[in-house]
Amino acid sequence: MQAKDSSPPDGGYGWVVVVSAFVVMGLTAAVLKTFGLFFVEIQQHFDELASTTSWITSVTIAIFHLGAPVASSLCVQYTHRAVVITGGLLAFSGMALGFFGLSDWCYLYWCFSGLGISFSWTPAISIVSHYFSKKRALANAIASAGECAFAFTFGPFFQWLISQYGWKGALLIIGGIQLNICVCGVLMRPLASSCLLEASHSATETPAGNGASGMDKEDKSPITHKTFNWMLVRRQEFVLYAIFGILAAMSFFVPPLFLVPLSYSLGIDESWTASLLSILAMGDFAGRLLCGWYANLHVTKTVHLLTMTITLISTSLMLLPLANNYLSLAIFTGFYGFFFGTTVAVHITVLADVVGMPDFDSALGLFMLIRSTGGFVGPPLAGKLRWYSAKYHLQEERGMATQTGKIWVQT
Q: Where does the record place the Major facilitator superfamily (MFS) profile domain (predicted)?
């Protein structure tokens, strides 16, 4: 079914699409975020090292990013609805295969899960931008907030599932829950393409004697808009924005990985450490909604708003090493989570402004693919920096101990 008007409705049924995308974000990105709860169980079952088990997330994230251009291309060729439904079925298939716990098929079902997340997440966030123009920033912020809302509840829920049904049974149940992605996909009714309407309008107005030329216009217009635009990599503004994506993925996604070890190094109790992740999630959730609401006021251009949020999140990261106890670390964590949420809330909207809506689907897939390089390089690079930093401080402390006659012990 297609809408009668090609212009974004900026409301109405669009809010149904936003709620559907909200749920899809929760059943994809939030599941991936909290999947670390299965690591110990899977490691013990297969009797593997932690370094080997960690490849589960790496493979899933890699397939998620590599599948983004494929998902975007399928959205252009078919509809967002069809791709989301396919993604839901793939996500369930991955979890169902995981239920059998076959080591030989281990990477196969994580590939299915990665493709399922990619085929669900990419078109869900894309169709929201198609349904909204003036309220696009607010709609994207609400849809992306599903990741935070679901992640906040999935942690204890997954732990309960594992304790009651074991890790295999928990995977099967989660897969069944992810089938609701298909329901959300059905609700994502496609809008009529403006190129198709223009072609039909041209064909209608063409005189009878020029029927052939009218047919050519009708044939050519849809084809030009039904092709994945790889040539975006030649556009300077898109390349600059893709570079931003690489740098952001290298840095902004790393702190949560080191937040818990940092708290341990400060001597913070383990029970208090867990609350830092909750503070991070709540700050992220609030930042997305408040920034989306503010962007909807159109007081500031979205690209200028993104620049401000990047400056603020960078400042909060530079101040984070000043934390020396739980209270200060919790404050800085809250600021980081909030400004991270504000950045996530508007960066997709800015991408739509940079390339325009006709090329948005192609741009989103390419942006995700290019950004993945930063995500792959960032964590190991941060680990190297942490190792060199710890070694430098150890040497410095030993030097000071020699001069003062004291013995320094680094824990």
A: 237-411
Mapping DSSP to helix (H, G, I), strand (E, B) and coil, where does residue 324 land? coil
Structure tokens at 281: 């999630």
Query: What is d(CA 265, CA 299) in angstroms, rounded to the nearest whole number?
Result: 43
Instruction: Return the beta strands (E) in 196-247 as ranges.
Output: none
Give the burial string for 307-332 (b: 16+ CB within 10 Å, else e).
Answer: eebbebbeebbeebeebeebeebbeb
Q: Do domains 14-187 and 231-404 have the same CATH topology?
A: yes
Q: Which CATH architecture has domain 14-187?
A: Up-down Bundle (1.20)
Q: Is 110 exposed, middle or buried (0-12, 13-18, 19+ CB in 10 A)?
A: buried
Phi–psi pair at 336, nearest 5 degrees: -60, -45
How is the chain split into domains, by residue range? 14-187, 231-404
What would the pLDDT profile of 298-350 be if each residue is shown by its tens digit?
898 999 999 999 999 988 888 887 888 888 888 988 999 899 999 988 988 89
Euclidean distance between CA atoms 106 and 59, whole angstroms:
11
In residues, how long is the chain? 411
Encoding tokens for residue 295?
């962007």
> Which of 42-81 are b and which e, b meaning 16 or more Cβ less than 10 Å from the residue's Cβ?
bbeeeeeeeeebeebbebbbbbbbebbbbbbbbbbeebbb
Contact 322, 268 (CB under 8 A): no
Determine the Cα–Cα distance for residues 278 and 257; give it in Å rounded to an integer.
Answer: 14
CATH of the domain spanning 231-404: 1.20.1250.20
Give tens-digit pLDDT for 12-21. 889 999 999 9
**pLDDT tens digits, 157-197:** 888 888 888 888 888 899 999 999 999 999 999 876 533 33
CA-CA-CA-CA dihedral for 299, 303, 307, 308, to nearest 10: 10
Cα dihedral sign, 294-295-299-302: positive
Tell me if 130 sits within 8 A of 191, measured CB to CB.
Answer: yes
- State pTM to two decimals: 0.73
Q: What pLDDT digit, counting tens, does each position of 246-289 carry?
A: 888 887 767 776 777 778 777 887 667 767 877 888 898 999 99
